[in-house]
Write a structure and sequence with these properties.
about 400 residues; alpha+beta; ten-stranded mixed β-sheet; two-stranded antiparallel ribbon; 12 helices; binds coenzyme A
Length: about 400
């Protein structure tokens, strides 16, 4: 039987504010599932005609699948949203690209005709489940991956500085300052308002409080302040600091995906159409470089070039790896298409939540810039992987 691929569209994207991990974080007393459930409800409320029974799967990326994030959180979230037990769900892990991989699975699902309406998300509560928590790598893993530094993301960033010394700490710091400035401008202009779903938390003295703003951005960041920060990942000669690295964060993001036919049937306006995706792998000790081959592969599949990309959303795990990747893709670090509303250096990087966050930003930017046609979302992944996706704006009036 011959089958046509269905066109896959993104209808909506919502996220929680991103908090800092740890006791001073806004979500210290909030469970990971309780970051996801309000997003499911918001997608339902915001999209008239959509009902929980239409959602054919709830696919969530999450890195540390233990404790509150274990037990197939993707399945638990629809039930916790009071949708009954009829909506299936699963959890996916590709570390930082877990959420983007969840979107990718949903794209294939819809394109193949296996489903018409899906929710894909990503969540990470790095305060409750820190990076590497309860992990037990195979004893041979270090050798296979090329050395100890492959297991520590900050050290992989130091490796890029060392291997490619043309990317200096000063450049990384300048990129981070610019990122903070872009984020501050976007936040002040209200650009986050449409995508952020306020979350109720237990504040001081047990009082309930609604949180609607990201906790991580540092709008006043200066080069002088960054120059004074200590390096975390090398005893001597290190260049990676808290200022030019993404943070440790808690947050979730979810997107509503449909076949274009289903969107039409429900009268929902799609924001963008999936074009191409690719994953690629590199030496694990240089994991931050992997967006380069992943992007080249995705562009080749799409028959497009970087010059066609009007919006470039690159996840800034570290300033140096973003700078390296942009350079190798022929794009300057200060190119006006790059992370227009700022990136993970400012907002933080709750691992699996970050991929869908890139798509939330892209779809918001498409709305703001009707002349933009193509957008690229790309990110690096621990253990040496990259994931890139290309989408096309849809301006249906
Ligand atoms: C780099 C890292 C270790 C820093 O952690 P941390 O020490 O808890 O970070 P903090 O936010 O407390 O910042 C450390 C200091 O830098 C300061 N700082 C951070 N960003 C700053 C900025 N933009 N401007 C000025 N000061 C800044 C903080 O105020 C703090 O100062 P203090 O020690 O005087 O309080 C941590 O963020 C990290 O591991 N990041 C990488 C995460 C990662 O690997 N993710 C996966 C990617 S693949």
């Amino acid at each position: 039987m011959k089958r046509e691929l269905a066109e896959v569209v993104l209808i909506d994207a919502v996220r929680t504010p991103f908090g800092r991990a740890g006791e001073k974080g806004i979500f210290w007393k909030t469970r990971a599932e309780d970051l996801c459930v309000p997003l499911m409800k918001a997608l339902m409320d915001r999209n008239a005609g959509l009902t929980p029974r239409m959602v054919e799967d709830s696919v969530w990326g999450v890195t540390n699948q233990v404790k509150e994030q274990g037990g197939t959180i993707g399945r638990m979230i629809p039930m916790l949203a009071d949708w009954g037990w009829e909506v299936p769900g699963c959890s996916i892990d590709r570390m930082c690209a877990g959420g983007l991989t969840a979107v990718g699975f949903c794209v294939s699902y819809i394109a193949s005709g296996m489903a018409d309406c899906l929710i894909a998300g990503g969540v990470e509560h790095m305060g409750h489940l820190p990076m590497g928590f309860m992990r037990d790598p195979h004893p041979r893993a270090v050798a296979v991956m090329g050395g100890e530094t492959a297991l520590n993301m900050g050290q992989t960033a130091e490796n890029i500085h060392e291997r490619f010394p043309e990317f200096t700490r000063e450049m990384a710091d300048a990129y981070a300052v610019a990122c903070q400035q872009k984020a501050a401008r976007a936040i002040n202009a209200g650009r986050m308002a449409d995508m952020i779903v306020p979350i109720e938390i237990e504040g001081g003295g047990g009082r309930k409080q609604w949180i609607a703003a990201d906790q991580h951005p540092r709008p006043g960041t200066t080069m002088a302040a960054l120059a004074g920060l200590k390096t975390h990942f090398r005893e001597e000669g290190g260049r990676v600091t808290a200022g030019n690295a993404s943070g440790l964060n808690d947050g979730a993001c979810a997107v509503l995906l449909m076949s274009r036919a289903k969107a039409r049937e429900l009268g929902l306006k799609p924001r963008m159409r999936w074009v191409a995706s690719a994953v690629a792998a590199v030496e694990p000790t240089l994991m931050g470089t992997a967006p380069v081959p992943a992007t080249r592969k995705a562009l080749a599949k799409a028959g497009l070039t970087m010059a066609d990309m009007d919006i470039i959303e690159i996840n800034e795990a570290f300033a140096v790896q973003a700078l390296y990747c942009l350079d190798r893709l022929g794009v300057a670090g200060d190119d006006p298409r790059v992370n227009i509303w700022g990136g993970a250096l400012a907002y933080g990087h709750p691992l699996a939540a970050s991929g869908p966050r890139l798509l939330a930003f892209m779809s918001g930017l498409f709305r703001e810039t009707p002349q933009a046609r193509y957008g690229l979302a790309t990110m690096c992944v621990g253990r040496g992987q990259g994931y890139s996706m290309i989408w096309e704006s849809i301006n249906e009036s």
